[in-house]
Amino acid sequence: METLTNQLSDRINNLAASATLAMAAKARELRAEGKDIIGLSLGEPDFNTPDFIKDAAIQAVNDNYNSYTPVDGYVELKDAIITKFKRDNKLTYDRSQIVVSTGAKQSLYNVAQVCLNPGDEVLLPCPYWVSYSDIVKLAEGVPVEVETSLDTDFKMTPEQLEAAITPKTKMLWYSSPCNPSGSIYSEAELRALADVLQKHPQIVVVSDEIYEHINYVGGHASMAQFEDMYDRVVTVNGVAKAFAMTGWRIGYIGAPAYIARACNKIQGQVTSGANCIAQRAVITALEAPVSKIQYMVDEFKERRKLILGLLKDIEGFECNEPEGAFYVFPNISHYFGKTLNGTTINNASEFALYILEQANVATVTGEAFGNANCIRISYAASQDQIKQAIARIKKAVS
Ligand code: PMP
Ligand code: GLU
Known about the structure:
pyridoxal phosphate, Aspartate Aminotransferase, domain 1, 13 helices, pyridoxal phosphate binding, AspAT/PAT-like, 2 domains, binds glutamic acid, three-stranded antiparallel sheet, seven-stranded mixed sheet, globular, single chain, alpha/beta, Aspartate Aminotransferase, domain 2, binds 4'-deoxy-4'-aminopyridoxal-5'-phosphate, 13% strand
């Protein structure tokens, strides 16, 4: 009997694999072959989850938290999220507006599924986080890239926003602090964007604030804090980054109740809710004062200084100064058309591949983030690894 080899849907055939996860997998593969690869591709804190959070998880196991949870999250967790939103963001939500999911990635997926009809346009200021465009496409939406530049620190101006809006625009998605540029929209900058959005009341905003606490300049602003925007903003957040809990897979939204209800409905058919033990641990994480995780932010700040200093010494690496998150996003287009050690570099993907093969350093091409002139380097790695990696890159391009 003939074996069927491609009964896959157009949906999955047209989906790009996550470039960040693909690069991390490639680095793992090369390491297994014995290569000494330094992985600066994945946005994953290299710290352990703090003990007070691990203890809460152990306690939850012993307390027999083993049953299905409410689909949208334990009430105690929702209350901790409500308190966190009030404490850190001055945002008032009630339980009907909160949905806990299996990572912020699923929160974003849910929102796309419940808000988008085929052909709806979603504005994505570039560079944007790698998964936004494919999550939008999975919901049959149309990602619309909005170009930004180094001059504005990769932030979208009100004029750029206005020019990108069409009658089909349904949503705007952005992250602040931004993955991959590290840029942070100030309150005034968000207000100026909100003024444009006031003229287009059909547009729902997704404000991805997962790097909120990894901020080196202070002052985090949320789009939903503006009264005239509150009713059409979905605030996305999670514990993966600030609490070093990437594998625990908990993210959440604060949203207009009708959107939260819809996310609850889709989750009820897809996951039945997030993991019970992880949810209990996150209650403890969110109830703790933010000062408990400051040591990680302080270390990221040192690493940022280190990597920016080292990159300055490499010809053709043009960087903004990231204000948050743990990435640098240098423009390396200087190398396009040049031949390095017999390899001609035509684009950012080829540059990233060259760096992987010649320097044994894993980074991610900017193309995956909607910017074909840059690469993303994660500095969520030890200072020693950063020093070694940048020295190797310098050697490979000189
Ligand atoms: N948004 C941004 C901007 C991210 O960098 C990430 C990476 N993890 C996510 C969302 C998804 O987070 P989670 O691990 O909670 O799914
Ligand atoms: N958000 C991280 C990154 O951008 C983790 C990888 C992922 O979830 O795609 O590297």
